[in-house]
Amino acid sequence: MSLMTEKSPIQQLEQREEIVRVTNVEKSFGTHRVLEDINFSMKAGEVVAIIGPSGSGKSTLLRCLNQLEPPTKGTIKLAGIEIDASKNATKKQLTELRRAAGMVFQSFNLFPHMTALANVSLPQQRVLGRSKSESDKRSLALLKRVGLEGKADQYPVRCSGGQQQRIAIARALALDPKIMLFDEPTSALDPELGLEVLAVMKELAEGGMTMIVVTHEMHFAETVSDRVIIMADGRILEEGPSASIMRNPQTERAQRFLQAVKNR
Ligand SMILES: Nc1ncnc2c1ncn2[C@@H]1O[C@H](COP(=O)(O)OP(=O)(O)OP(=O)(O)O)[C@@H](O)[C@H]1O
Ligand SMILES: [Mg+2]
Q1: Which residues of the chain have pLDDT under 70?
Q2: Which end of the chain is more exposed for a tag (fewer CB within 10 A), N or C?
Q3: pTM
C-alpha cells in the first residue's frame, strides 16, 4: 500500500460506526436532579473512562445507558437501539439493549451455588438460547482468555476477588456484547488483585472492544482509555483525549479533583 492511501488514526476513527449517542440526558430521583445536560458520543472500538468525585452521577449515567435506570429526559442511542425518555421503551428494545451492553459492577454478583463454568454458561442458555455444550465450550474459551482455565469447576467462594471479577467479565463477554460498561470493577479489590483485572480490561481494549469504564484508577484512565470524561455535580465538566484531560484540565473544579486524587 502506498503512503498516500494509508489513513491516519483520526481518519480511521472518523470512518468507524457510531455506537453510542447520548443527547440532553437528565435524571432525577424525585426532586433530586443527579444528571443534567449530558451529551456525548462514541465510535466503535473507543475506550472512554469516566472519572469524578463520589456522588457526581457516574454510576447513574452507566445505569441510564442500559436503562437499568430510565433517564428522566433525553435520548440514548446504543448499538442502534434508540430510546427516548419521553416514550416508554418496548420490551424488545430492553432485551436487545441488555444483550448489546455487557455490564460489570464493583460487586461481582456471581451465583454462589454454581461453578465458574455454570456462572458463565447459564446466561448464554437463558438469554441467547445456546445449547449447554455450545455454551460450555464458549465459557471455557472465555475463562481461558481471562486467565482462569483452571478454575472452571470451582465455586466462587473458593476464588479470590480478582478471580471472581474476571469470571464476571467472562460472563458478560459470553453474550457477545457490542459494548462493555464497567462500574469501578477494581474498587472492592486489593491493589494486587485489581491489577489482574485491569490487565484483562487492557487486553480487551487492545482487542478492539468498545468500553466505558467508570474508574478511580487514574493510570488506567490516562494510559488505556482513548478519552476521559470528568463529571461533577451531575454534569460533564470536561471531555477529551486522555492525556490532555488528565495532565492539563481546564476547569478549576477538574483541577481540584485531579489534585485531590494525586494527593490521596
Ligand atoms: N436509586 C437512587 N435513589 C435516589 N438517589 C440516588 C439513587 N441512586 C443514586 N442516587 C443519588 O444520585 C447521586 C449520584 O449517585 P451515583 O451513584 O451516580 O454517583 P457516583 O458518581 O457513582 O458516586 P461514587 O463514586 O461514590 O460511586 C447521588 O447524590 C446519589 O445519592
Ligand atoms: Mg458509583
Answers
A1: 1-14
A2: N
A3: 0.93
CA distances from 120 to 61, 67, 88, 95, 117 (A): 26, 23, 31, 19, 5
Give CA separation, 159 vs 6, 142, 155, 167, in Å.
47, 16, 7, 9
Rounded-to-integer distance, Cα 135 and Cα 260, Å = 45
Cβ proximity of 215 and 182 under 8 Å: yes
- What confidence score (pLDDT) does residue 7 get? 64
Nearest Cα residue to 191 out of 160, 222, 229? 160
Mean pLDDT, the chain, integer: 93
Query: And the C-alpha cell for 70?
Result: 430510565
Q: Is 66 helix (H, G, I), strand (E, B) or coil?
A: coil
**What distance in angstroms lies between residue 22's CA and the mean position of ligand 2's atoms?**
19
Residue nearest ligand 1's atom 18 by CA: 57
